[in-house]
Specification:
Strand order of the largest sheet: 2-1-3
Radius of gyration: 18 Å
Number of helices: 7
Helix content: 25-40%
Structural class: alpha+beta
Strand content: 15-25%
Largest sheet: 3 strands, antiparallel
Number of strands: 7
Oligomer: single chain
Shape: globular
């Protein structure tokens, strides 16, 4: 399996971090959250995370669908490939993580929030045409919530550190709105 892993235990949802891949091209860390499933043969050791100690692990059903839709296969070796989310979807998951962390009362969450905000700026700076996505309203709302506070979340010092020197925060918003759009809702049963 290529990672240090462990056995799922308990009846509630669980979160795990898989680390130390045996293949240098594989992601250094993968975090997942899942419900308990009997018969999953996970051996060895994994780091068990508290249920809410997750960095951008998204369990909302619409994010699961978005991951299926907006991922690309990254060839590791031979016929082995790994699906990787588009950068714009990673931005959206980090928007969701920022929302959750801001609601939390733990002291370490300020540092985690700052890390996610820096990641959002760095990822936004490298978006390419292939990263354009359209998402449903519930997912788009996370971007809207972030952009409503952009002036306080993206101060000049953070912008400069993350590759946005001599550019205004409005460029971040314009770029994000260009690459992440809200799906059009078609009402059924309405008369034209």
């Amino acid at each position: 399996n290529g990672y240090e892993t462990g056995q799922l235990t308990g009846e509630k949802s669980q979160s795990y971090r898989f680390t130390k891949p045996t293949n240098a091209l594989a992601p250094k860390t993968i975090e997942i959250s899942t419900g308990r499933k009997e018969g999953i043969p996970i051996r060895q050791k994994a780091i068990h995370l508290d249920e809410f100690d997750m960095s951008a692990i998204v369990c909302e059903p619409y994010f699961v669908d978005l991951l299926k839709t907006h991922s690309e296969l990254f060839k590791i070796e031979g016929d082995l490939s790994l699906p990787v989310a588009k950068a714009s979807l990673l931005v959206l998951t980090k928007c969701y993580a920022v929302e959750n962390l801001k609601r939390s009362a733990r002291g370490t969450d300020k540092e985690k929030t700052a890390k996610h905000l820096a990641d959002i700026l760095r990822l936004t700076n490298v978006l390419q045409d292939k990263d354009r996505i359209s998402v449903p309203e519930p997912a788009y709302k996370h971007l809207e919530n972030l952009l409503a506070e952009q002036a306080t979340l993206f101060p000049r010092s953070r912008m400069d550190q993350c590759g946005w020197k001599k550019r205004d925060v409005s460029e971040v918003e314009k770029t994000l709105r260009d690459f992440i759009t809200k799906e059009m809702q078609i009402k059924t049963g309405s008369k034209l």
